[in-house]
Amino acid sequence: NTSPLPDSPKVLVGPLLAGKGQQDSQSPTPMRVIPNTGTPASMKDQNPAPFQPQHRESAIIGERLSGQPTQEDTPTKLLVELKEAAANFKERYPKTQVLGFSLTPIRGLFEATVGKEVVYFDKSARFIFTGRLLDIEKGIDLTDAKLREIRRVDIAKLPLNLAIKQVKGTGERQLVLFTDVDCPFSRKLAQTLENVDNVTIWTFLYPLTSIHPEAKAKSDAVWCQKDSIAALDATYKGAAVTPYTASPLCNSPVETIIRLGAELGIGGTPTLINGAGDRSAGAIPLDKLEAFISAGNQRKEQGIQK
Question: For a designed S-S bond to 152, which of 4, 169, 244, 277 qualifies (C-beta 3.0 to 4.6 A apart)?
Fold first, then answer.
């Protein structure tokens, strides 16, 4: 069923561990990264990205040097070590599309951004793992911070004309919502949103047909109603809507939205995106929902959105 929890990475390394790229053109892609929502990230056979240290390297180098540095811990040597590790990774897995490599605060452990996921590996790239990298002393989830960065969405680039628009109060805050009309968590979130004001909600009808086979037809029908907002609310509450029949009079965008969601790596509902492009998932409670929406506006005003 759909997940009320935030995304967390899972990786099926499978053929990737075969090493040295011995697969031919008929072989499966060496690595496929799959978030817990169930939608695989795109891992097509493309040339690996050139080595480019990411912007946070200087901060990590500073942290490494602030501890108990050895002769190996100099900015130049650390970056050389990262470059060598990146080269080893690309040599072992030449068909895996890597968006970037980075140091971590742990000696000998490196980070690769693969699609919308993060994997960790040793310098030889023989050993790879996924999961949460936590700094217990500082109380920081380092993996979460990176995932938020790479999964951020520029809502200005979304096809908002394909979403149901609802303006509440001043509408000054922004919220994008991917919803499945038959998803119990989407329905619960809709009830919570009734108590949220001063927000513009853009709702993309995103049926998860593998578990809710009737949701696609219901979504089409909701879109084609004269008052889609009222129809969506009624459908959440179990009311029947007039069946949709494809015709020039109403062109449902649901198929397009399904493709959009797959491109964004959205496989669970409800998925929420605030004004800064940060994501959340599930039927989060009112206080956290308010904070998430407001944080998006604050971050956008501060120019944090990229």
Answer: 277
**Are β-strands 100-103 and 164-168 bridged in parallel, bridged antiparallel, or unpaired?**
unpaired
Q: For residue 293, what are the CA distances in angstroms to 154, 172, 267?
A: 15, 10, 21
Residues 6+ apart with CB under 8 A from 192: 283, 284, 285, 286, 289
pLDDT digits (tens, 9 = 90+) for 238-268: 998 887 776 667 889 999 999 999 999 898 9
Residue 115, both tokens:
């699609």
Q: How far is CA 2 from CA 38, 256, 267, 274, 282, in A?
A: 9, 21, 8, 20, 8
Q: What is the pTM of this model?
A: 0.66
Q: Order the strands of the 109-114 sheet from edge to edge.
A: 100-103, 109-114, 117-122, 128-129
Phi, psi of 5 (to 5 degrees): -100, 155
Residue type, 258: I
How many whole angstroms separate alpha carbon 205 and alpha carbon 16?
A: 35
Q: In whole angstroms, what is the distance from residue 13 CA to residue 10 CA? A: 9
134 neighbors 199 (Cβ within 8 angstroms): no
Pair type for strands 128-129 and 134-135: unpaired
